[in-house]
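Morning run. Coffee first, then this:
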Amino acid sequence: MDTDDRTTPDPAETRILVAGASGDTGQCVLRALEGRPPTVRALTRSADNRDPLTRLGADEVVVGDLLDPDDARTAVADVDVVLSAVGSGVRTVLTADEFVDGAGTRNLVEAATAAGATAFVMESALGVGDEPASPLAAAFDLFIGPVQRAKAEAEAALRDSPLRHTVLRPGVLTGGPRTGLVQVADPGARLWGAVTRADVAHLLAAAPFTPAAADRTLEVVSNPLLKRRADPIDWLFP
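And here it is:
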């Protein structure tokens, strides 16, 4: 489907699900959306996170595991937009047979499609996919290869779906406040560097409402040395 066929959601009438809401990037997404028009539902695997996520700005909190298709369907009920910031920890990389980044995200894509959602934004990582990669992205593949492959499968499932989508592939994620000094480019640009989770969260929240981000995969870093490789996008925040 061509990008021109996709409808940009109306922020004032949008219900947003933040998957992976209790993670570092997910919490940044909730902070970014707090006080904005959209109704925000947070998804977490632990009931202990209900009160903290509500304090961060979630209007609703759903407890569930995306590796369970039924939980994924419950999470997306009546949702217009999905912002997925799910990720696997180091211990999971070493021990798990399947990853929330892969099978879990695929379950979420399938559920969102069946529920009639209109847009889906996925946090992925540099080095995912077959495009030419920077040394940093190649290092990601070396050290967390199973997760990178799982993310690639989830990206493919999202692109094959009818959902308007944006895939963000950030570099090394760091703490700290949003800087607004971010470079994005199509895959193969060989971007490298770090980027704050707050900056990535801002793009996750803005992507569904930004026409230029529709149906695209974008590498994301904060590295002024790479300005010439960057694609100037006018990000529209809800």
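The beta strands are 15-19, 39-44, 60-63, 81-84, 119-123, 164-170, 172-174, 183-185, 194-196, 216-221. Good start to the day.
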